[in-house]
C-alpha cells in the first residue's frame, strides 16, 4: 500500500500527486481526500456545482479541510471492504490515529437518500496524539471567501445565500476555527461534520449515536449494492472496486454518470489540455451501463436510458453529446484565470465547449444500449421503437458527414473511421430490433446502408501502406479508438486486417506497451499522457484473439498503475507512472471491467 511521509511541524508539499487521493461520494457529488488527511476537492451539492474546496487546483486560493496529527508520521489509506467509506491511518512513533471519511447515502423505500454532508471520525488508537485542524472553505471556485460566524451548533461559513455549517461531536470537544489544535486520549474518538445548509434534506446529527447510525446506513447501502455483482473471476477485488467507483460517479436522481469527479487536472503537467469532466457524456454513460449490466446490475442501465430518451425528445438534430447531471444543455466553457491550476497547469476550465460538437458515434452508441438492454430482458416498447427508427434514419442520412469524433478535436471536423464504425453498429442493432418486431421494411432499408458503411470502412478506412485502419480518411495514421472493431462485432479479432491493425497500433502508438490515443494534429498545443482506456482496449482485443499471455502481461502493467486504493485517472506518464488527467475517471474503470471479463473468457476457452 502506498505510504506518505511528512513532518507536520514544517511545510507540507503544496501539490500532492494525483495518485495520493481517494474519493468519497454519495451518488450526488464527490470529494477527494489526500493521504495527508486533507480534503482538497469538493463541490456541493452536485458534481458540477462550484467548488467549496479546490486546493488541488490552487494551493493558496482553492480552499481545504485538513485534519492530521502533529509531528512525523506515515499514512496509508484503504476503503472499508465493499464500500466507498475511506479510512486514513497515520502511523507515528508509538502513535496510531485513524480518520474515517464518508458522505452519507442510504436507501429508503427504494429511493436513494443522499445528504450534502461530509463526516470525519478521528480516533486515537494507542498513545495520545495532538491533532491539527484547518478549515478554509472557499466558495465559487475560490473566488469568494466566506464570512465565518459562531452559531449554537458550530461555525457557519456564508457567502450570499450559500452556507456551510461546521460542527464537532461531542460538542465543544474540539475548538473550531480556521485552524486549531486539539489532543486525543488513548481510544478516544471525535467527529467533525460539514453540512451544506442550502438543501432541504439536511438533518443535523444531535449526537455521536446519530453519526454512527449515518455511518452504518452508508455502509449498508454500498454493501447491499455491490452484493448484486455477479462477477467471480480472477480479478474480483479490482472489478468490484471499479464497479463501486462507477456507482460513486453516478447521479442517482437521473442515472447519469459523470466522466470524472474533477475539472482541469492536466493531461500533461504545465500544459493547457485541461478540461471539465463533471458532466454526463452519452458515450461514457452508455458504455458504463453496458459494463455494469455485464456484472449483473440492471437498474442503472434502465434508469439512465429512460432519462436520456426523455431528454432527447426534442428531435434528433438537437441531440447533444453531453449534459449536466440534471439534463442541462448549456455548458458554456469559461477559463478561471484567478486559479493557478494543478502544479501551474493553466487554464482551469469550468463548462465544456464540446457540448455543442457534432459527434456521429453517439447515435450508434444509444442504439447499441437499447439493443443490449432489449436482449437482456427489458424489451423495446412501442414508444421506444420510434426512437430506434428516428436514430437509425438519422444515421442513414448523416453517416457520410465529417464530425469531431470520440476525441473531440477542436480543429476541422473529419471523416473519422471510429464514427463510421458506430454508424454501422447502430444500424446493425436497429436492424435486429426491427426484425424481431416484424418491421421488415425498416430492417431491409437499414441493412443496405449498413453494408455500404462496412464496405467503405474496409476500403477507404484501410491504409495499405501503413497496414492499419486510418484515424480518418485523410490520413495514413492509426487511432487507438479503432481497436473497438472486434469488441462491437464489426470484425473478428482474428480477421487479417484487424490483426495487422492491432500490431500497427501497438507499435506506432505504444510506449512500453501503453497506448496513446493518436499522434495526429488535433488543433491543440502540447502533448498528453498515455490513455489507460486505450491500453485496456488492446488487452481486450488480445484476449479475443487468443493471445492470453500477452493480454495478461499488458493487463498487469495497467493494474500496477492504479493508486493505493485501486483508482485510476484518465492518463498516466508511461515513464514515471505519474497519474494525469481527471480523477477518478469512469471510462478507465468501465474498460477495466470489460478487459477483465474478456480475459476471463479467453482463459476459460484456453483451458
CATH superfamily of the largest domain: Glycoside hydrolase, family 65, N-terminal domain
Q: How far apart lie the N and C ends? A: 33 Å
Structural class: alpha+beta
The assigned CATH architecture of the largest domain is Distorted Sandwich
Using the CA coordinates, give the radius of gyration.
Answer: 25 Å
Text of the CATH class of the largest domain: Mainly Beta
For the sheet with most strands, the description reads: 9 strands, antiparallel
What is the percent of helical residues?
Answer: 25-40%
Our estimate of the beta-strand percent is: 15-25%
> What's the domain count?
3
CATH fold descriptor of the largest domain: Beta-galactosidase, Chain A, domain 5
Quaternary organisation: single chain
Number of helices: 13
Strand runs, count: 31
Stretches where pLDDT falls below 50 for ≥5 residues?
1-12
Question: Quick check: average pLDDT?
Answer: 92
Gross morphology is: globular
Main β-sheet, spatial strand arrangement = 1-7-8-9-12-18-16-15-14
